[in-house]
Amino acid sequence: MSDEPTLTTDATLPGARIAQVREGAGLSVADLAAAIKVTTSVVKALEANDYDSLPGLPFVRGYLLNTQKALGLTDADVMDPFNRWRVASGNMQTVSVAEPGAMSAPLRQHPVRRYIKFAPYVIGLIVVLLIIRFDVVGTIADWLVPPPEVSESATRAVPPVEAEPDFEPLIVEPSLALPDVEVAPLPDDAINEASAQSVAVTAVEASAPVVSDDTDTPAVAAHNLVMRFSDDSWIEVREGGTLLMGALKTKGDAVEFAGDGPFDVLVGSVKATQLVFDGNVLDLTERASQNVARISLP
């Protein structure tokens, strides 16, 4: 027996076997093309062993593997003749996985599968970065957002206004000189009677009930709001949409407001602010977002 390799001819390539099994199964060329997801021209080239009209031998090998599976053929029917043809024709040598002791080429790992094991670490890192970002952005916003402008009339203390009298001052002009008139002295009886009448009038006035005038009593405010500060905190207080105060308060400050409400309160630092409304201390942390709270009272 000669040791020289024998070239495989077209008669031993799998094309004829593929056509035979396809026709025996009652499948058309279009049916097989749809099953392996290629065009009919590819199926015709495989059955004619016309590999030159196909994109390349790696593609041909893939087409043959899919055809083998679709028709239920074995390596001996399809892949073994193709591999022997490649060896004999000088193309890259491959061996059938069905041959005992043969080593198959290593499969390339998909790029996505290569990195998918790092997905939990990447997701955890993204969550941590988002948390840090929200804290940093909230802090920077507190630093960069300028306080709203407050009109000078709202913060300036109003001096008390003295009420002007509603009567004209009495101007006493020097009287004209009167002629000297000699007044006769009253008798003792008339003096005693006048003294008695004066005492009676004084007694009546003392016994009369005192009637108080409540028309000028100021109205009592419906609500009371007190704010105390243990550190720096910007606040805004509005009543019925009117700005009562907008200022930066420091440690030890305290402000108090009284009115009918409603009060809209903005607290820039919940941790440094205590709010007491109508004698009740409110928990600002339940209504705070990143140490800032907006509250409507009542």
UniProtKB/TrEMBL annotation:
UniProt keyword annotations, A-Z: Membrane, Transmembrane, Transmembrane helix
Segments crossing the lipid bilayer: 118-145
PANTHER family: CYTOSKELETON PROTEIN RODZ, PTHR34475
Entries under InterPro entries matching the protein: Bact_Cytoskel_RodZ, Cro/C1-type_HTH, Lambda_DNA-bd_dom_sf, RodZ-like_C
Domain Cytoskeleton protein RodZ-like C-terminal residues, every copy: 226-296
Name used for this protein in its record: DUF4115 domain-containing protein
SUPFAM superfamilies: lambda repressor-like DNA-binding domains
Species of provenance: Litorivicinus lipolyticus
Any one Pfam family match given in the protein's UniProt record, by short name: HTH_25
GO molecular-function term, one example from the UniProt record: DNA binding
